[in-house]
Model the fold of this input.
Amino acid sequence: MFDPFFSTKPEGQGTGLGLSMVYGFVKQSGGHIKIYSELGQGTTVRLYLPRSRENEDSKVELVAAPVVGGSETILLVEDDEDVRVTTSEMLSELGYSVLRAKDADSALAIIESGAAIDLLFTDIVMPGTLRAPELARKAQQKIPGITVLFTTGYAENAALHGGRLDGSIDLITKPYARDQLARKLRQILSKE
Done:
């Protein structure tokens, strides 16, 4: 139940990110979770977090670094045409080469064509038979070293973990600003 993208709800009703985000937050905080569930009785979830006896952190003034883009090639997978066009324009203005796909099946065709792609930027919830997590797995098999960035409008609390789930999945929530997207892309593309 803590696996990302696992959901018993129908498409559009949930992303399967809720418990994964809770798990990630608790583990990053040095705690653990206990779940007890009994059919017909309900479920109890207990979060155990370490106690801190340290003084409260003082406020720090953050100085925003200048927004920079890159020259990498990004495969943008988004089923909403308006969002796809707007995001594509943002990415192009930042200097990226952009390949566009309206669904995971179209994106897989682009990946299998042998195009040089540095980053797969895909919506989590899309129509079609191929789901975003499976697309990401196939992209990573076909293009070793490709970076994947997921996006969704459903996971409102994704920022709780700095935009990461279980330490391995990068996520940015919609709506995102140009500067926010630019910084996230540089962060994950510069990891290597």
